[in-house]
Amino acid sequence: MNRQxxxxxxxxxxxLKVFSKTLQALAEKDKDVIALTSDSRGSGKLVPFxxxxxxxxxxxxxxxxxxxxxxxxxxxxxxxxxxxSPACFLTTxxxxxxxxxxxxxxxxxKLIGISAGVSYGALGSTHHSLHxxxxxxxxxxxxxxxxxxxxxxxxxxxxxxxxxxxxYIRFGKKPMPLLHHQNxxxxxxxxxxxxxxxxxxxxxxGECIYPAYEASLILEREKGIKMRVISMHTIKPLDxxxxxxxxxxxxxxxxxxxxxxxxxxxxxxxxxxxxxxxYIPFKIMxxxxxYTITGSQTEIFNHYGISPDxxxxxALKLLKIK
Amino acid sequence: xxxxxxxxxxELKIKSVEYRKKILYYIKKAxxxxxxxxxxxxxxxxxLYNSVLHVSPDIIENPDRDRYVQSKGxxxxxxxxxxxxxxxxxxxxLEKLCRYDSHFVGHPTRKVNGIxxxxxxxxxxxxxxxxxxLAAKMDQRVYKVYTLLGDGEMTEGSNWEAALSAxxxxxxxxxxxxxxxxxxxxGLTREVCxxxxxxxxxxxxxxxxxxxxxxxLEEMNLAFHAIPLSKEKPTCFIAHTVKGKxxxxxxxxxxxxxxxxxxxxxxxxxxxxxxxxxxLITQN
Lengths: 322, 284
Prior knowledge:
The structure holds two protein chains of two kinds.
Chain A: E1 11-14, H1 15-29, E2 33-37, H2 47-52, E3 57-59, H3 64-76, E4 80-86, H4 87-93, H5 95-104, E5 110-114, H6 132-137, E6 143-145, H7 150-161, E7 167-170, E8 175-177, E9 192-195, E10 200-204, H8 209-223, E11 227-231, E12 234-236, H9 240-249, E13 253-260, H10 265-275, E14 282-287, H11 297-303, H12 308-318
Parallel strand pairs in A: 2-3, 2-4, 4-5, 5-7, 6-7, 10-11, 10-13, 13-14
Antiparallel strand pairs in A: 1-8, 6-12, 9-11
Chain B: H1 2-5, H2 9-30, H3 35-52, E1 67-70, H4 76-85, H5 125-138, E2 145-150, H6 157-168, E3 174-180, E4 183-184, E5 187-188, H7 189-193, H8 198-204, E6 208-213, H9 217-225, E7 235-240, H10 263-283
Parallel strand pairs in B: 1-2, 2-3, 3-7, 6-7
Antiparallel strand pairs in B: 4-5
Helix pairs in contact in B: 2-3, 2-4, 2-10, 3-4, 3-9, 5-6
């Protein structure tokens, strides 16, 4: 736990920029760090990388299947490969390559899904990735990470670079508040408690953390409700210890994700709880199974209640407080 | 490949028949497998593993070894018998082919010593091979990457994505061999979805293309040792082959794509191969 109030929260960069900066720092030290792009170096903020390390960037063109296959081949030869492509295309178009060439063959490719979730907003559902957690959760040997802020982004990339198995990391494109202190421990599969409390636990991931955190402050200020806010940056493997502790110590659990309500963080938590006999009030917030409303990421979030106000309302409902 | 520089053409020919016998034996034993495709590509594998590839069990971890990626993973039985013969694992392991808890499944996996990549879903091997070839260029290594493609799998669009990047990155250390037996599970490849002329397509994608006879061990041996045929271009060999080659009633018959012979057919097939083997030994 590392926050007590919102007064010390400052705005950071986009997680994508942090990804790019971190990758540059890694590439500088290690010539085996390679980035592959599918005509996506601009949207992946990798133009400076490509200029500084032209021999460490492989442009594949708009061919996501080949992007992942080539990445697998390079990784099998010891390269630390970051395959960078919009999350929507990477995890659908190249799903078979991810499943077979990366996960099944255990090639330690770092799959970087950029502009994930509904980051592309009004570009429409072709450009949204609301399925990626669900699709990749069912692929054996895949770690799935959705960093919430700049700190989690930097640590994820540094960790992934030395990780000897496949990992998928998704980033949004909006500047994110600096939620965590820089000296915290960060490990895949170990969540971070952002705020403590026992009335209700919010387990959120990626860019949903900040509105969840804001909601917790409103509830505390206005209703005296103490929320526990958990950044569940790793969707797989899930932090079982934290989820169980929250179920035992809190009156309910609210999960929030920038993903379909089907097959993502919420359902993963729910099945883990039920299978272990932990029955508590539970609600999954995310994007419902419908034709997604048109709008910016923020407008889509607001429409589906992924906002301080929307989360506050859901929390009160779950606690049966009017 | 020092050990096999000494292997004569006559010895290679004997190997081919022995491999066919083993493919037949193990598929019959497992009651599963791909006879037709394994018989059509086994001569190619024979030449590669016994005369061309710089790879052996003692250097399988060596970053400078040549790589072989079998994109047409379903013909894994041919690969298994060749790898066993080259000492990558005891041949007795093949008794467990497709058995419960065995690593010897119906498509290649890296759980088996000597296998470089997991394949089976078609249209994957060429991209992975591009990555391996690219790594060699980055590290100034001189190894070559050979990948075996089925002609039926050439309808997979991912192959052409890979073909583009292979020429874009001037990967003259990459060799694709198309097992051009002109049959796939449904029927004639040109009738299922015509990919002919493959030569023109690969050339248009920037490759050097040659036709070879995929059952002529001497011709293949010479061709594979002449690589690269064009500087800065990947090479594609379109290998004319016969599906089911070497067993008369299996040749050019799609029923043997993954058909398993009954006892009588097995007996007949084994007798044919034994006869062929005796003849070769006598000639030798």
